[in-house]
From TrEMBL:
Entry keyword set: Metal-binding, Methyltransferase, S-adenosyl-L-methionine, Transferase
A GO MF label: S-adenosylmethionine-dependent methyltransferase activity
Protein name: Coffee acyl coenzyme A-3-O-methyl transferase
InterPro entries: Cation-dep_OMT, SAM-dependent_MTases_sf, SAM_O-MeTrfase
Pfam families with a match to the protein in the record: Methyltransf_3
Family: Belongs to the class I-like SAM-binding methyltransferase superfamily. Cation-dependent O-methyltransferase family.
CDD domains registered for this protein in UniProt: AdoMet_MTases
GO biological process, one term: methylation
Cross-referenced PANTHER family: CAFFEOYL-COA O-METHYLTRANSFERASE 1, O-METHYLTRANSFERASE-RELATED
Species in which this protein is naturally found: Canna indica (Indian-shot)
SUPFAM superfamilies xrefs: S-adenosyl-L-methionine-dependent methyltransferases
Amino acid sequence: MASESTQNGEQRRHQEVGHKSLLQSDALYQYILETSVYPREPEAMKELREVTAKHPWNLMTTSADEGQFLGMLLKLVNAKNTMEIGVYTGYSLLATALALPDDGKILAMDINRENYELGLPVIEKAGVAHKIDFREGPALPVLDKLLEDEKNHGSFDFIFVDADKDNYLNYHKRLLDLVKMGGLIAYDNTLWNGSVVAPPDAPMRKYIRYYRDFVIELNKALAADERIEICQLPVGDGVTLCRRIK
């Protein structure tokens, strides 16, 4: 039987900000964080993670391991013109801004400017705020406006979506015209706390249950979409990469 101190340690890890790992072993997740993520986490991202920890909705933040993954991915695809739908306090936004070249751009959208401004001083101190064009409000009207101008079609290298799950398919319809051929769209939370394989009558939090069917519908639609290649990864709460091929 595990000692009381070990059990308390496991409990603390579950409460960690951005803890969305689907690994069955918390100790293994902690090993990944302490061995590979935290030692290489930029100081600004660490500071923003700590700022976010004090916010009552801190579970909404991108996990540290996913932030590291996004930064590596952006560099691998040489992204320059990017978009982010759903910003919260800006942890994934900062990861993107740090990974982009100095003349890189991020069109960032969120319905809550107050949360974004919580992390903005850290972003400014990191010297990357000039890369961000923040728009407050729903994303769909912004996307529709972009689509009205032909020059925006196929102009984005990378798009990260971490927002209202009931609109993911609406976003997808529009984003496929905005991302370039060979470009990537990344959808976050596609395993939705593991609820995608839970029985419908399984106990789960109200917001998990509400969005569960939307996430399942998205996953089925992406798997059937011949315009993209996909790769679903158990990073964070599940992230699905979509590479446009048509």
